Request: fold
Amino acid sequence: MLWSRVGIILLIASFIQVESLKFSSIDVVYKKGVEAYSNERWSECIVQLEESLHLYKVYKRILINCRLKCKHDAQFTRIQENIEDLKIYEMYFNARQCLINCNNHAFEDVRMYNNVSDSTIFNMQSRKPYEYLHLCYFQMYAMSKAASASYTFLVTNPDDPKMKKNLDYYLNQPEVDINEVVDLESDDYQILYRLGLKSYHTKKWGETIANMEEALNDYLSWENNCRMECERQPEQEWSPEITITISNYMASLLICKQTCQDELKPLYNSGVEFIADLLNYIQISYYNLDRLDDMGKAVATYLLLLPNDEDMLENKKIYSTLIDDSAFVVRSDVVHYLKRDTYEKQLITFFRQENHSDDVETTNKV
Reply:
């Protein structure tokens, strides 16, 4: 009798181990969440949709890390002399094999399938899960979570009338604190920026500098990651002329990369405007702490971005009486950002003018 029980225990343990070795699929988990929602299984809806959001974040992180790694590694080529642009061929061959190996190993390590349907990617990027989740939270009497879920959906879908009405309802509930309603997909740079504003208004100059400097660095990192998501592009109009086909893909890629800055709207029209605003708070805070050389760098970098800003030009005149002109040094990371952004915008304008059309197809990122 004892041995039979032991055998059953070992069989159950073996089954659990096999189950744990199964690969996760974002498509499957998301579909289960939607089905649970449709069948009013509210607790299961929450579990499955929260898991799909988590898996999607892991999925994005793996792709971005592999693309960044392979873009870097591809620069090291064996061809020393770039004859007839052959080095670019080797770079793409290197990147191709690197991406295949990196993705295969990384997704296997986390036991996740790396094939996700376009429809699921679109739903994740449009924050569709939160459209279901807010009601599932509501049905489980989690009002604060329901409010944050509805607000999170509205950030990407600001004109949705039904969700606006839902959010208003949640905010009027006694158990919901409006200060605790947050964007559940908020990026770090947005949080740091808000913290910086709070410390600025209370004249905590050291905290303002720390938050705004970190917000600037994090924004640059965030936008680089967002741009890497654009490496997945749809099929473009095909031509037997390979140069035309490649040009169509390149234009679509650049347009996608530029749309990363749309995240800043409606407060800012571009990354340049946002970075300049951060630098403005930074230079004021450095001035109040008498860190004049650091102030000079912030001012010089601001004017690199917005050279005709009259207020900052006037500030520079005043500051020039306090510090040497050599202190007005621009930040190299912002110089690179501005050059890349300017060049990309010029290329897109040129492409559109040449084609007399704005109908280059762009796609969901990732």
Notes: The first helix runs from residue 2 to 20. Residues 1-20 have pLDDT under 50 and may be disordered. The chain is about 70% helix and 0% strand.
